[in-house]
Structures are given as C-alpha cells and as structure tokens.
Fold these 3 entries.
Entry 1:
Amino acid sequence: MPLAIVGDASIGQSAAINYYLATECGLMGKSSLEAAQIISISEHLKEMNTAYRTIVPWGAEPSKDALDKWFDQGATDVTGTADRAGQSTRYLTWWMGRIEAVLGSSGFAVGDSLSLADVLLYNVFSEHLKVIYDDYDDFYMLFLTCSHHQWHRMHNITRCYVLI
C-alpha cells in the first residue's frame, strides 16, 4: 500500500495521495468544474485498468487473442449516454473515446495548464501501455496530450513509500 508521510501525518491509498499532491502543487485545476473533470479522467483511467484486468489478469502475459480483444473489439458507444448493455465489453476503444470526449483543446487534458489529469494520462499511456497500434489515429489528441508533458517536481513531502 502506498503511504505518504507529511510532517506528523500520513496519507494512505494512491488516489488520496494523488489528490493531496495535486492540490498542494496546483494541479487540481482552476475551478471546481476543472477539478471534477480531472477526477472524471482519473476514474475513467482506473475503470479502464479494471476492464483490462478482466481480459489480462495481473501478472499474466497478454495473449494475441487478449490483445486483439482489447484493441479491436467491444462496445462502440463512445459518445452520448453509455449503453449499460455493453458495459461488460468496454475495452480500449470505448475508454479512449470517452476520455477523448472530455479532453480540452489547449494542449492540456483539462483547462489551460498542467493538471493531475495530464500526469495520470502520461503515466497510463506513456509508461504502462506496452503495445500501441498505429491505426488509432482517431485518438491522436489523447496521445498528443500525454507525450508533451513531463513530471514536475512535487513538494511538501517528507517521505513517500511504496510497499509491495
């Protein structure tokens, strides 16, 4: 379990640490609406990872069939009201369409400056996504957003542990 120690207090759980750091570093947007959009992207990414793990269990090497399913199959209702009937088949195309729909147009995921959403997108797509197919041009803006941002130095943290 991740743990951040700040002075005499501690914060457990990745999401809580992320929100604390983002707030301290000015990465939670400039308004309540932007903060909600950042949280929305965070939740989409978390649920996308959960969906991936239904196809490729943690620690397992993904098979070609599993990757084909993740990249090329599943629900396609990427705009409008989500169809609950397809909920169990929400794979990469669905999640990327939903995330792309909430991305800003200023080169940042939300608003006009770096936010926690940019950091999380970078983390998921630039560091963890091992296989990227070239035919996902429809989602270019998402990858563009991820590739142009780097980690900024976080402050006010005395120690940060990742316990395995």
Note: Residues 125 and 143 are 7 Å apart (CA to CA).
Entry 2:
Amino acid sequence: MDKLVDYLCIIQARTNSSRLPAKIMLDLAGRTLLERVYETVSKSTKIDQIIIATSSESSDDIVEEKLKNLDIKCFRGDLNNVLKRFFDATLRYQARNIIRITADNPLMDYAVIDELIMHYEASGSEYSTFSNAVYGLSAEVFAYDALKLAFVNARNEYDKEHVTPYIKDNCKVSIINISEQYQREEISVTVDTLDDYIKMQKFYLFCKKNNLLHNIDNYINLFDNQVI
C-alpha cells in the first residue's frame, strides 16, 4: 500500500462557469488563471501534494491537456456532484486531510494556507476555515473521515455541489479570524465575472510592468492607494 498523504490540496476547476465560461483558461500576464492559482498554492510548506480536480465532461478535456503539458496532476470526476469528485480523488491519492481551493482565486496566498493548516492541527477539529477575509482569499481544510461522512450521508444537491456544507453542520468545526491585514471584506479578488477578470488582468499587468510581486499584499496596497 502506498504511503498516505498528510495534506492533499484539491484545486476545484471547470470550464462551464455560467457567468464567465472557461475563465480558468483566461490569460493573466502570460499564464492562465488556473496556472496562477497553482503557482501560489505550490509554495506552501505544509501541503504534500496538489491536484486539479475537474469534470469528466468533454468541455474539460482542454483542462486535462493543459495540465498534462505542465506536468500537473489532473483528476476527473462528476461535474455536478463535486462532493463525489472530491471523495473519489481523496481515495485515489490516499489523503488524511484535504485542502479545498477553487480555481477562480488567483491571489490565494500560500502563507495564509499554511497558517490555516497550523490552526487546524492545533485545534483538533475536523474542519477549519477563515472568517472576515478578503473575498477570494479563502481555503478550507478538513479530515478524510469528515469528507467520508458527508459523502455517505449528504442527500441534497446543494451539499453535493458545494462539498463542505454537510461537514460544517455535522462535524467538529474551528473557525479562525484571518490575520488583521487581510480582514478586508470590502475587497474582492475572485474572478467571477468579466469585470472581475479585467480588474485582475490590470493588476497582473501593472505588477509585471513595475516589477512587483502579484500577491495579495500588493493588491491591497494598490487598492488602498486607488491605483486599481
């Protein structure tokens, strides 16, 4: 039997987004949105393995092909029952704990993820996430046993689509206030609409032109100074 993975990060991705189709393949200063998400998550010191979990629909063949060219692991599963997709991926990679990230948050910071994992470990909980955070600076970490409980017992479509609601309602949960500098709920860094994408592309191009790191700290600084 292969060694169990302590922390498996699953980046949830699909191309059939209703508001901005194929957004994960859009360019952000030379790389796709999906690559940008993977790029920052891969800097985590606590995550042992990262996979992209997309659907088995033909519309997501382009995702698998892109990831194959980048030598990034891709798992394919149910389009609408994302809970099943996560559970099947967790079984495939034999993980004890799972970090859930969505592929529309390019400024998800690796240090923030590591902080969350450390809180999760110290709390002895089955599920942890942040509160009061910049919208789009979000991650969830939960135990395999909690995911299995949800997979076996969740009945409604909402729980199946959003993965963690059943866990939050039925398992030991610990919520952490994110670091003070990121307690900015008036700021959104998710890419959900065309306007969101234009704003994020502007930020990435500004950083490239001015030799700045495209991270959440610089985004907040430029936001506060009304540059973006």
Note: The CA atoms of residues 166 and 222 lie 38 Å apart.
Entry 3:
Amino acid sequence: MCMTFEGGDDHVQKLSRAGSLIGGLGGEKIRWNQVIADLSVVYRNLLGDVLLSSGYIAYLGAVSLSYRESTLKDWDTACRAKQIPCSDVFSLAKILGNPVLIRDWTIDGLPNDSFSVDNGIIMSVARRWPLLIDPQGQANKWIRVNMFTPFHKFDCFFVFLPLR
C-alpha cells in the first residue's frame, strides 16, 4: 500500500531547506560556546579588573605612562598575592571602554594610542575634574570638540610655564 500526498515535492523542498538551516546553525553552536567561555573568564576576573580600574581612575590620571604601568604591575602583584582574580593583561579600554565611543573620539581628533584612550575614558567616567598634562595641546582640542555641549560645562584652566 502506497500513500501519496498532494504537493509531495513541496514537502521535500521544505525538509531540505530545514536540513540546510539546521546544518548552517551548527557553526553558531561553536561560536556561542566560545562566547560562553570568554564571558566566564571575564566574569571570573571581574572583581580584580574593577578594583584595578577604580584605582587607575582615582590615582593614575595625572601621571606618565611608565609610572602607570609600574604602579599597575605592583597592584596586579598585590591582587594575585591576596588571591583576587584579575585579567592577565590589564586594559582600561577593554574593561570600561565602549568601542563605538572610542572610535568617535578618534574621529574627533583624539590620538589612537592607549594612553590617550585611557585619558579619554578617565575624562568620561571621573566624578571629579581630572588633571591633564597636555604639552602638545591634543587634549585641549579634543575636550573643546567633545565636552563643550549645552549639557556639559567644564571649567578649563591652562597653565603655561616659560621654557628656559
């Protein structure tokens, strides 16, 4: 006994398309498993990374890059000694940065080096007025473009020391 359905070819096509869709989503499973693994590492290191970021914003805004790096190395060592998990490589831009906002900043004239991006993050999240050391005037230009809007009002003081 043989049963036939009207539109049998249509069902075969639908079944074929469903099989293709499921096969295509197989690659998504691999990607999502990788995302889960990455997020679990971020979650595990969250406490130490936020602790280092808070110290970075509060204390390291007005110092040189070499001093920032050496202080962060000391803080990282102290965190590990106290068994506080933190990322192997600290990056303020990865922890507190918004890639779209950082891209907008670079379009508006902020240099694309990590020191300048970190300074921009400090400017955007600090509750107090940050102290900026700006010998080339790049931060001055960027602040005037980005921070002087009707909703932001900053008082800027410029100190010029004579060169000897």
Note: The domain at 44-146 is CATH 1.20.920.20 (Histone Acetyltransferase; Chain A).
